[in-house]
Amino acid sequence: MYLRNTCRIIFQYRYHTVLLLLFSTVIMVYYNYSTLVFVQILLRNTATIGKNETSTSFDSSTSSWSESSSVWNTWTSPLTDSQSQKNDTNSSLNAFIKTTTVWNLLKTSSGNQRVTVGPKGIPDGPRFQKVNDHDAWLFSAFFDNFNNTDLIRVFGIQPLLLNTSVFCHLLDGTSTYVIKGTKKDLFDWHRNRRRVFSYECLLNETSRPNNVSLTFNETDTPTNSLLVLYPQALQRNFTVCYSMLYNYKNPYQLVQNVEFNRVLGAEHFFLYRESVSSAVDTVLKHYQRQGFLTVIDWPIPVGEIHYHGQILSLNDCVYRNRGVSRYVVIQDTDEFIIPHHHDNWTELMEVLNKEFELSNKSQSEQLGTYIVQSTFYKQSPNSSEWANITGHFSISDEEFQMFKKFSLTVFSNLKRLKTHFVGERQKSFVRPETVLFNDIHTPDKNRPCIANVTVSADVAVVHHLRWWTSSEDYILDTTSLTFKDRVLPLINETLLLLTL
């Protein structure tokens, strides 16, 4: 009787049962799909910074951050080459800094875990984010220490005359607190309406926020959320920071510059991409796969700022490489900082550092920036001059054809202006931990007790491959050809591989 009644009930409500099963199935599929999408978002955000550039995760316990305080001075102090070798394996610093992995991002325990999605689901990848309804855009945030005070430094863009207060919404573990911040515009001699700004949020000794959001009214709900980037352990000697690329269509120039710089000692490159041709994008993807190029997209949302926010991109690059790279090289793709008596940048730096140590009488200053003078290389030698050059350098017909076919002007434009530019157009090697704000050519402001030196034009020169109308006499300079036999095979290999 019981079985018969049960069967009758199931038959009577058979349609309801089927609907219930279908509904349950839909719920399960949706849940699994949402989880998959969430993991994909985390992977995408983690990869945005670049293949070789990793975000950092910190144990927020008191003991870990006490240890971090003991190594902060080491991280912010310029190193001599001998000191650098010792600190490369600094166990305290390596214990302090941990690489963020997807596993860490997926942890959901009640402990202090790094949060990768901000208010209203705003992702943390490097991109421009608006400050509510104001004409202000933020790009990146960094943990910093200035005058023995811990702070979060945010870089962004706003009109110079937008006079508002700044409020920092700091996400520390699972709690958020609000403090009043300050802001400072970076110098721009072009005097555009919009400027690059540094927004500063002072911290107490124990606070280590994961994310920061800015508003200009204390009670506003943030519409932005930036992941705070912390210093990492030393990974390399030289990193090249290119200015942002806008409407850039010269793949041969880019390959020429990257491969020449690799021979000189560059180990990683940062490039800010606003708009490039498909051929250039092919080159970028190739170098990204090789693992030594970080590309950061740069869809700047506003105008009336000097050259698409170039100063912001350069400061972002310098700050991203604090602690990571011993030197940052500031240059464009048509510029080559070439030593005239050394085989590479490492040998050049060793000589310059020794000269500074001998000349530094007070011992109170440390060397932060090496300024290299520039001049224009714009003409190719005539036939008789080439005949004389080939008497000293072995240049085959095939190599001459490469110079012409791929516009390898670093080897063909060997006639330069007789003089060098003084106080302008120079480029720099920078110890990133010594600079407060960087300009296009040299630091705008150093940290305390930091000195700059100007490198003699007899030692190294910026070979700027740019057309320039001048009545000045030109002189022949074949320095670049001394690197030809090391650079050309790399250029040829890359161009053949990419079939450009």
Automatic annotation (TrEMBL):
EC numbers on record: 2.4.1.-
Domain of life per record: Eukaryota
Transmembrane segments: 12-33
Principal location listed in the UniProt entry: membrane
GO CC annotation terms, alphabetical: cytoplasm; membrane
Keyword terms: Glycosyltransferase, Membrane, Transferase, Transmembrane, Transmembrane helix
Cell compartments where the protein resides: Membrane
Membrane topology label: Single-pass membrane protein
Record flagged with keyword Transmembrane helix: yes
Keyword Transmembrane: yes
GO molecular function: glycosyltransferase activity
Signal peptide range in chain numbering: none
Alphabetical list of Pfam families matching this protein: Glyco_transf_92
InterPro entries: Glyco_transf_92
Recorded family membership: Belongs to the glycosyltransferase 92 family.
Name assigned to this protein: Glycosyltransferase family 92 protein
Organism: Biomphalaria pfeifferi (Bloodfluke planorb)
